[in-house]
Write a structure and sequence with these properties.
Blueprint: H1 32-35, H2 52-82, H3 87-122
């Protein structure tokens, strides 16, 4: 043990570089077309920005969709608890009912919003329903 040379010390010989080793190539130059933002990603100057109100309406529709589906599942669970029967069958039926009701609600809300937008585009007042 006393005759072993120190490892990683100042007296260690430096190993020569392998014969096939060379400096790595520099990274390729990025073309100018890739540096520019495409026109489709830039906002158009004549298009109105989305307001926070429109964003809130979109979140409300999404939240309504989820809650309606969960309410259907809860009705299925309640049916299995009160009436009896296989829980999975009742809950799956409730989920199906909730999903169908959620789609119906979204379609009605979308049609109502489209009618209101068409009424505003014509220059009319607030749509009656």
């Amino acid at each position: 043990m006393a005759n072993t040379p120190p490892m990683n010390g100042p007296d260690d010989p430096i190993e020569p570089e392998p014969s096939g080793w060379r400096e790595p190539d520099p990274p390729p130059e990025i073309p100018q077309t890739l540096r520019e933002t495409p026109a489709s990603a830039r906002p158009k100057p004549d298009s109105p920005r989305t307001s926070w109100g429109e964003t809130a309406k979109a979140w409300a529709v999404a939240f309504d969709f989820i809650v309606t589906i969960l309410a259907g599942a809860a009705l299925g669970w309640a049916g299995a608890t009160w009436i009896g029967g296989p829980l999975a069958l009742w809950v799956m039926g409730g989920l199906g009912l909730g999903f169908a009701m959620a789609l119906t609600r979204i379609i009605r809300q979308t049609l109502k919003a489209e009618r209101a937008e068409a009424q505003r585009a014509k220059g009319g007042g607030h749509p009656s329903r």
